[in-house]
Design brief:
globular, five-stranded mixed beta sheet, about 35% helix, about 20% strand, alpha+beta, single chain
Length: about 290
């Protein structure tokens, strides 16, 4: 067993759990369903059903199943909760709101016009991704939203340089966009995400998100797997390089190769280059 509580949870629920990732996706034991919507963490026992809305910890799961948790199981859960203690995240929502209100300054307008013209990005992306302007830094601000929580802010300067707000943490960019979608496109970097979103407007079933760099760690994809649970296809549009290819293979290792499709640019290094150099969706591996 790869994870601490796999055997315990398997026995409690009476199911054979295949350890594809630390988040197992199962049929909910509390309501009738044909498609799995019950997610449970195999190291700390935290669970949530995206179908009926029930959630809780391992103790509650035992109680709802009419069983009593043994001291040995409690000990395993406690040890692993210490090993996998989550990082405390700072919320930059108030700063992001302040920066969005500064978008009407002449410097901000000029910088945004230059940014939009550099790639196939529509003006609507400014508001869809809640971009802002930092008066102090003289840069476009790009907040990383998770619902109303802003985990971090990146700054993009007119010369293309970037920096981050101190204390920021970055997971998947614009992660809200992919939740509940039947198809998801994962790009590399914020600008590629903005461009692909602009090109995909009108396709309500397609969500577009991004990651910072070609993440090729299965642990990262395991964290995002719950947000991608309803996607029948996940298109991995990372850069056309070795790191991007490894990112695709890592995604396959967690999500499954039947679910993942590699969108590898053929007219440049990234998706933006591909489109601006005359490349088609078909050449990427995506129907236009």
């Amino acid at each position: 067993m790869r994870y601490a509580l796999t055997e315990t949870i398997s026995g409690l629920l009476g199911v054979d759990i295949k350890e594809r990732s630390v988040n197992a996706l199962l049929l909910c034991p509390f309501h009738s369903e044909n498609t799995p919507s019950f997610s449970i963490h195999l190291n700390d026992g935290l669970w949530r059903c995206f179908g009926c809305g029930e959630s809780g910890g391992l103790k509650k799961l035992y109680r709802k199943m009419g069983e009593e948790m043994s001291r040995d199981v409690y000990h395993d859960m406690l040890i692993n909760s210490l090993k996998f203690e989550p990082q405390e995240r700072k919320n930059f929502a108030s700063l992001a709101k302040k920066q969005s209100l500064a978008l009407n300054s002449s410097r901000a307008i000029s910088a945004l016009q230059k940014y939009l013209s550099s790639k196939p990005i529509s003006e609507d992306a400014i508001f869809a991704f809640r971009l802002g302007w930092s008066m102090e830094k003289g840069a476009i601000s790009i907040p990383y939203y998770d619902d109303d929580f802003v985990t971090g802010i990146k700054y993009r300067f007119s010369n293309g340089n970037k920096m981050s707000e101190t204390g920021s943490t970055f997971g998947m960019y614009a992660i809200d966009n992919i939740r509940g979608k039947s198809e998801a496109i994962i790009c590399e970097g914020e600008s590629d995400t903005h461009a692909m979103w602009s090109l995909m407007r009108g396709r309500d079933n397609v969500g577009v998100s991004g990651i910072s760099g070609g993440v090729h760690n299965e642990a990262s994809w395991a964290l995002w797997s719950v947000d991608l649970m309803y996607a029948k296809k996940v298109y991995i549009a990372l850069d056309a390089d070795d790191v991007g290819d490894r990112g695709y293979l890592a995604a396959c290792g967690v999500l499954g190769s039947d679910k993942c499709v590699r969108l590898r640019p053929t007219h440049g290094k990234d998706v933006c280059d591909h489109i601006m150099n005359g490349g088609s969706f078909a050449e990427l591996g995506l129907e236009g």
